[in-house]
Specification:
The complex is a heterodimer of chains A (435) and B (252). Chain A has 435 residues and is of the alpha/beta class. Chain A has 2 domains: 270 residues, no CATH class; 57 residues, no CATH class. Chain A has 10 helices and 21 strands. In chain A, the strands form 2 sheets. In chain A, strands 1, 4, 5, 7, 8, 10, 12, 14, 16, 18 and 20 form an 11-stranded mixed β-sheet that branches. In chain A, strands 3-2-6-9-11-13-15-17-19-21 form a 10-stranded mixed β-sheet, with helices on one face. In chain A, a hairpin with a 2-residue loop joins strand 2 and strand 3. The longest helix of chain A has 17 residues. Chain B has 252 residues and is of the alpha/beta class. Chain B has a single domain, classed as P-loop containing nucleotide triphosphate hydrolases (Rossmann fold). In chain B, 37% of the residues lie in helices and 28% in strands. Chain B is built from 9 helices and 12 strands. Chain B has a 6-stranded mixed β-sheet with strand order 6-9-10-3-11-12, with helices on both faces. Chain B has a 4-stranded antiparallel β-sheet with strand order 2-1-4-5, covered by helices on one side. In chain B, strands 7-8 form a two-stranded antiparallel sheet. In chain B, helix 4 crosses helix 5 and helix 5 packs parallel to helix 6. The longest helix of chain B has 15 residues. In chain B, 48% of the residues are buried. Classes of the chains: A alpha/beta (435), B alpha/beta (252). The interface between A and B is medium-sized, with 27 and 34 residues. The structure holds adenosine-5'-triphosphate and magnesium ion (MG). Magnesium ion binds next to helix 1 of chain B.
Chain lengths: 435, 252
């Protein structure tokens, strides 16, 4: 088990600076040592990685090359001239990308960044994401085998008005392949930026995306990170986002997950300076046999920080959702203000949710609350709508959409919020309920 | 218009309606009064098709159709409307979208063309004036965060937009101040026509000064204990309900 990656590593002799090679070697050694987690590992209790571990994925083949900019249409948000880096089957696709140099914002592929921004990468790359914890072994695999990805640096004090879209696509040639994209986001002090990280499949391919995103948010900076998991229905997806926050910084994350047969999304942030905050929201909508596991972790290491978390799940068919929200409050993190909610709407008898808040609080002067609800369609509201002539099917769809809309409304960028509302709507109704 | 005959309904083992008979003709307004817990809202909900109540005996004929055999949405599409005693909040669904969906479903059922958002806005704007509600409320979620009075006026707005043939108003006057009460009553009076009928549930004779009923029925313990003209409401106001229970009369 897992020997394929070790062989791949030996064969690949990855390029890059010596410091990175050394870390890659440590990462693959760690993977060899601990192997894949089992459900006995607390963090993998409800999600067995066996379907990924037992599959024989090969390094993902290059795209068939038939994708054109027009094909991207349905996956884009906002204006066509917004900057984007597009990757197909794990490889940077310059012809599909738009990277005009905007003042103070650098966006480039990882391969280019390794050449052109060596000191930036040496300072940040691999420094945020943990490769030692046996629960994070997919990060170790990514670290050992990463080849391409994206680097975005927002300069000191810069307000990047337009969102930067990192789009990872898989086409038919992705079948049976695995890729390990790596993303680095650096928001220098006082800057503001929105980054969209989207993973989308073309259709019915079976492949494995193992992505790691690292972010560093400098003093007084704000980073919005909108993460979309829209992989093919047979795909596997493991994505880890590891964030380091300085004083007075804000991390605003939204995870939207509707794709893949099996997905595991880790979002970890550490508040390492006073006065900052993290907002982690998300929406997952599953059907059939889909399984989607969100593990969030917020570490309050310093006083006077807040964290807000609202995750919603809509589960149909025999799907299985997992949500685990960890909040660590260190002894020195006094006046921490944390709030977490996870609400699930079950649309079928066979759908299942495992939800667990995990608050570990070592400071005494803190306010931390959590709540979880699991419910079905509100029968009172359903009857009210039907009593006005709206048919049962329509009323159910509308109420389902409304459940999702409450968390989608928190997305601050209009074009993104509208885009996700439209996507959600297409799933449940036909027309926009706000018109 | 509607003919209710020997209607019995229960929740679980508990019988709430114990044989109600009532006939309302087109153009008429009937009022139902009666003590708390006597079954007024249950009757209203049963007529609207609430699935929580089981009809154990009796019939309801609405314009020649077997009302009890119809789904709630079919009843609404056929022109039945219930203004809820406790209007339901639906966070995340805008009032405008909700109203337009309902309006178009009813139009479809009547074989009429659906209204697009702009046409619909015209229709609603006019009706908004009738109930003195601000256009801004159209963009808010259905009843979410509305004050008690706003919720009731929103029910009347829906009534005005959907233009039902048979409307049941369940304590629409409760919780309204005098001005709002007059607005609601004026709304109903203006919607009143030869081809529609109203059943108005109320605790207060006051409302019946504005909406003058053809008949008043007193519901006590799941039965109509007495029926009469509009004077009956005045008598109830003066004497309470005790004397009604003492000398029951079959209601028509
Ligand atoms: N779903 C239910 N489950 C259990 N009991 C119910 C239910 N609905 C109504 N009841 C009972 O039936 C009786 C009649 O209730 P209903 O709401 O019809 O009274 P009402 O005449 O409308 O009273 P009010 O004047 O207070 O509005 C009450 O005792 C009530 O508790
Ligand atoms: Mg009542």
């Amino acid at each position: 088990m897992g020997t394929a990656y070790a062989q791949q590593f030996a064969a690949q002799r990855p390029e890059g600076p010596a410091w990175l090679t050394a870390i890659r070697e440590r990462a693959i050694a760690r993977f060899r040592e601990v192997g894949y987690p089992t459900t006995r590992n607390e963090e993998w209790h409800f999600t067995s990685p066996a379907p990924i571990a037992e599959a024989d994925f090969v390094p993902m083949r290059a795209a068939t090359g038939t994708l054109s900019v027009e094909d991207l249409g349905p996956l884009l948000f906002g204006e066509p001239d917004w900057p984007r880096l597009v990757f197909v089957n794990g490889r940077f696709a310059p012809s599909l990308s738009r990277v005009d140099a905007r003042d103070g914002v650098k966006a480039m592929s990882l391969a280019v960044a390794l050449r052109e921004e060596p000191s930036l990468l040496e300072y940040h790359l691999t420094r945020r994401a943990d490769i030692v914890d046996p629960a994070q072994v997919f990060t170790a695999i990514n670290t050992a085998l990463m080849q391409d990805g994206a680097v975005v640096q927002v300069g000191r004090g810069i307000d990047a008005a337009t969102p930067i879209h990192l789009l990872f696509l898989s086409d038919a040639a992705a079948e049976d392949g695995v890729c390990h994209p790596r993303i680095l986001l650096v928001a220098e002090p006082g800057s503001r930026a929105t980054v969209i990280e989207q993973h989308a499949g073309a259709g019915g391919e079976r492949y494995f995306t193992n992505v790691v995103t690292e972010a560093w948010i400098g003093e007084g900076a704000t980073l919005h990170h909108l993460r979309l998991q829209r992989e093919s229905a047979r795909a596997f997806h493991v994505g880890t986002t590891a964030v380091h926050q300085e004083q007075d910084s804000h991390f605003v994350s939204f995870s939207f997950a509707t794709g893949a047969a099996l997905s595991r999304i880790n979002i970890h942030t550490g508040l390492h300076g006073r006065g900052g905050g993290a907002t982690l929201n998300g929406l997952y909508m599953l059907d059939g046999e889909q399984h989607c596991d969100h593990q969030t972790r917020i570490v309050h290491a310093q006083p006077d920080c807040y964290s807000r978390e609202v995750y919603k799940g809509i589960l149909d068919g025999a799907s299985h959702g997992v949500f685990n929200g960890k909040v660590y409050v260190h002894p020195e993190a006094q006046k921490t203000d944390g709030k977490q909610t996870n609400n699930t709407l079950l649309l079928s008898e066979r759908a299942r949710i495992d939800t667990k808040p995990q608050l570990e609080i070592f400071a005494d002067d803190v306010k931390c609350t959590h709540g979880a609800t699991v419910g079905r369609i509100d029968e009172t509201a359903l009857f009210y709508m039907k009593s006005r002539g709206i048919p049962d099917r329509e009323a159910r769809k509308l109420l389902t959409y409304a459940f999702a809309a409450e968390v989608l409304e928190t997305i601050p960028v209009d074009a993104l919020r509208d885009g996700l509302e439209r996507l959600t709507l297409e799933r449940f109704t036909g027309t926009p309920p706000r018109a | 218009m509607i003919h209710i005959s020997e209607l019995h309904a229960s929740v679980g083992e508990k019988e709430i309606l114990k044989g109600i008979s009532l006939e309302i003709a087109a153009g008429e307004i009937h009022a139902i009064m009666g003590p708390n817990g006597s079954g007024k809202s249950t009757l209203a909900q049963v007529l609207a098709g609430h699935p929580g109540y089981e009809v154990t005996a009796g019939t309801v004929t609405y314009n020649g159709q077997d009302l009890l055999a119809m789904d709630p949405e079919e009843r609404a599409q056929a022109g039945v409307f219930l203004a809820f005693q406790y209007p339901v909040e639906i966070p995340g669904v805008s009032n405008a979208y909700f109203l337009r969906s309902a309006y178009n479903e009813i139009r479809k059922a009547r074989g009429e063309a659906e209204a697009d958002p702009l046409e619909f806005l015209d229709i609603v704007s006019e009706r908004l004036k009738l109930v003195d509600l601000d256009e801004a409320m159209l963009n808010r979620s259905v009843n979410a965060g509305f004050s008690g009075g706003e919720k009731k006026r929103n029910e009347i707005l829906q009534l005005a937009v959907l233009d039902p043939r048979f409307a049941i108003l369940d304590e629409t006057d409760s919780g309204l101040d005098i001005d709002a009460l007059r607005i609601v009553a004026d709304g109903v009076n203006r919607l009143r026509r030869k081809d529609n009928a109203f059943l108005v549930v109320t605790h207060y004779q006051r409302l019946l000064n504005y909406i003058v009923p053809d008949r008043v029925h007193v519901l006590v313990d799941g039965r109509i204990a007495r029926s009469g003209g509009k004077e009956l409401a005045l008598e109830l106001e003066e004497r309470g309900y005790d004397w009604v229970t003492a000398e029951p009369v079959a209601g028509v």
